[in-house]
Request: fold
Amino acid sequence: MNLSRLYHIIISFFILQVAIAQHDIRIDAILDAESKVISIDQQITYKNTSNEPLKEILLHDWANSFESKTTPLGERFSEDFLKRFYFAKDYERGATSITAIKDTSGNNLAFERYNQLPDIIKLTFDNELLPEESFVFNLKYKVKLPSEKFTRYGYHKNGDFSLKYWYIVPAVHNKGWQVYSHKNLDDLYAPVADFQINFTFPSKYSLTSELDQNEFTSDDEQNKTIQLTGKNRNEVNLYLEQTNSFYDFKMNGVKLISNIDDNDLMPDMKSVASKRIIKFLEDRLGPYPFDKILVSENDYKNNPVYGLNQLPDILRPFPDGFQYEIKQLKSITEAYLEKTLLINPRYDAWIKDAIHIYIMMAYTDQYYPDMKIIGSLSKVIGIRWFHAADLDFNDQYFLGYKNMARLFLDQPLTEPQDKLVKFNSNIANAYKAGVGFKYLEDYLEDDNILEDAVRQFYTSNTLKLTSSKEFEKLLNSLTPKTIDWFFEDFIPTNEKLDFKIKSVKKRKDSLEITIKNKRNNVMPVSIAGLRDGQLVYKTWVTDIVGKKKVKIANEDIDKLVLDYDQNIPEVNRRNNHRNIKGLLNKPIQFRFLQDVEDPTRSQVFYIPEFEFNVYDGLTIGSKFYNKTFIRRDFDYRITPSYGFLSKKLIGSAFFQYRDQIADYGLYQIRYAFSGSTFSYAPDLLFRRFSPSVNFLWRPQDLRSNETQRLSIRSVNVFRDRAENNPVETPDYSVFNVRYRYSDFNLLDFNSYIIDYQLAKNFSKISTTINYRKVFLNNRQLNLRLFAGAFIFNDTERDGDFFSFALDRPTDYLFDFSYLGRSEETGLVSQQIIIAEGGFKSQLDYPFANQWITTLNANTNIWNWIYAYGDVGFVKNRNVSPKFVYDAGVRVSLVADYFELFFPVVSNNGFEINQPNYDEKIRFIITLSPQTLIGLFTREWY
Reply:
């Protein structure tokens, strides 16, 4: 037996002896694979480890989180626009049915759902449970397992089972009961307990777990029973498969059990990689206290390494060995921490996240120092010229956080997990915590301090209730530097970091540098001096409030750089460089296609663009822009184009600046200017220029989709005159004020718009109210009310160009993407955009020059087929109000993006029997990729 093996056994034995489980849980469970039900007889021995008497015990029953659409879990799915749970069949959802809870004498105990939450049980008893006393009670219940398509745990289509949160477990009592509902965050907070489980299931299955297993002998050929035992466990996950997908390796006293996809690697390669990971974790954290560690593909997919490694195998730019190793590293490190550090995962997750990502970054630095963020693509001719090809694999963690900071959606690391937007919960907050540790490590100027603190924190708190406060105390004791800024500014706030070299003055033998802190914090920054590209000086500057001057020796330094090692998670590194010699601080760089932001260059991107309308035909142009993959405060795009049909130079330009003024309430002001010129009819161009300012409001809860926007703009249009059919008012300016309120999720949509327009010849006001509701029976109702009226209207000579439209607005503000805005016949004339009246049939009264009121409604008949109906009144001058209606069938292939409308009946009569019915069919089509992408990203932001 080697010394490391003996050391592991001794330390593990010591940990297990010190960390004696508070509770004992015994379960007899029988799985009915056909009905997907587990019948459970359970005994819990609960020990009161608090210093106060208890008259109740709270239990987590997360298996019951699936029992209806209205549970906290169901509401969470709806908030994230996940349809699969709400529209699932009843038999696909799970539930717990409790028969009885009794004491050891067989007396029934009173229990109820705690605060009416379906997945928390409050158990009350007559006599107080004094400190250090234990209470034994028995539960009899059945668990109907849910489909795995909701959380990847439950029953699978192929008949297999993955079981997580399948039994009732006591809650943690630590300064009060620590309870909360299941919200698909994998964050159950359970105390350690000694488990003994007798699990009976059909013989055709194999069972995999990380507990010790012993199969009972039985005469029953159809079923078998396995006894599972484990001490000091906070969770028991089980996998029952007809064909076992798990493999295992033994290393350093720990048996790794895994079914992580291996890309058909040789077993020896998998073994070497796994052993290296376990050894690295033992060195960085300490010995794992159990003899088995189980990681599954389910766990990995619920919390993967996001990035290019998620592409299909044929497209992945990483070698299979690295691909496999990084997946195992992510999963094993997570299991290592989750099973041993008992930290409240809903309210104090940041410390485990920080350790997790910090270790992953250290592992990559040690074993794959040359791995790039785009893998082997960094060596491909053409791609290797991009700045993305220069980025290391570990740079993805900073970029993940910066993405949310630039979107003004970043949240404090201390924010409860269920209050985080999904991108923060799954990606950005963990990444910020990890890069925060690298920032802190760089500041401490001694790599061993933070590494030792992590190791000591883990070894001294293994299998104990602990918190991030304990880590803060420990780290403070190990470093002579003041680190209050890290725990007071960086961790509990979403204050961004942005430092700037304001000015540099040369003295005889020194440089006087003014550093500006553009944010409201006191976090430190490093400044470095370079000579001929080589580092000659580096120091840290602290307590920068506003501006601060520092002097450094002038050793023929030719360049100054803030955060030279790029360990500080600044939202803007473009102002970190200052050349002491030379004219240009940052050279201009033209790049074909979009790239990652390069802080050392002034980047201009260009890309060919192809568009189509019936007047210009196919248009080819080149878009010049500065937008990188992560949004900037100021962006522009200039797109000169050529129309092959019109044979004219056309195009557009857009400039925008976002001013973030607060975290919520009136949080952002956007200033913009746009201009464009295209054809609006054969051989006729329009030119449109529009300055605007937008005020945006949002609530403090960033998970809420409630938004408000006030837009003030001036739309100025100049049109060519047609010689044979001249328009009376070719040029016009419209002052437009528009207020929009919206609040929506998968089940409910509420919005309204108030729009006021003022021009030389008219003034009008309108409102649009939208309401959508999905009921518990899956019936969907969509209602839209539009009402508009002219305050004054002197546009008779322009016909109905400025009038309200019943079915197809003239779009004189040029807001809509018509394929052929002036067409009255042909396919493109059948395109509609649901605006103003919102009718689908073309009636005898298509416009209103006085007032209009319409109501649009539709409801689903089957899946994506709807019945629609529109009613309203149209009022023109010197004509009595006309009642209008239509009805038909709506085929919604992609809601609001690609739809077909088939009129059935209207003021025109029964339209199906009328000639040229195909010309009455209307369609909605959206060609903007960005608009369609929003359908897939809305659950993340």
Observations:
- Residues 1-19 have pLDDT under 50 and may be disordered.
- The first strand starts at residue 23 and ends at 32.
- The two ends are 53 Å apart (CA to CA).
